Amino acid sequence: MPRVEDANSLPLKEYRARFLPVSLAIGSSSQPSHRIRLESSFSMSTQQFEDCFNLIASSSANAYAASSIGWFPTKKRKEMKLPDLHYLLVVNPASRRGVSSVEGFLSFMLTYEDGHEVVYCYELHLAPALQRQGVGKHLMFLMEHAGSSAGVEKSMLTVFVENEAALRFYEKLGYTKDDYSPGPRTLRNGTVKTPTYTILSKSLQEWATDEEGEQHGRIS
Fold this sequence. Notes:
8-stranded mixed β-sheet; alpha+beta; 7 helices; globular
């Protein structure tokens, strides 16, 4: 069985054991400020799903609406339920029952893109209090760890060109414009249409987890 199909057929517990063998705590291992939970699109609770959707809507609905992709809540909810999609949820263990506990997440999928085996980052969103704390970098590391462990060729993602902060963030992590990213196109009347998003990628062929894994396995 091909690697992508083999990986996506695994039960959640085995998927985590095979592809995410590093610590998922944020802060002290004895008193973590947050924990990262791996869930699938089917294993998430209704509240967790709504927390994730609300993070997308509050941080990116306007950017989606202004782009060629558009903002369509029903379509986004359907995408969030894709069968092979997995979620790294940043959970506050101190949250009271009934109060939102998901304060950030990264969704990703082991899949194919233009014939290449890849791990694709669908969404990365953090509550304001978790931004600029190294949490986003840690989530990206965990996703790349999963992709490398699964043996895929590269990591990919889509980012809006107007989101300059996100572009700088991904560039610092080693992402560059992918060959399949859309370029400007000229209409019949001579108007040049510039894409509202770009596709970035990073090779995982030489991705190492020894020293980097020890450094990023837990955020202290």
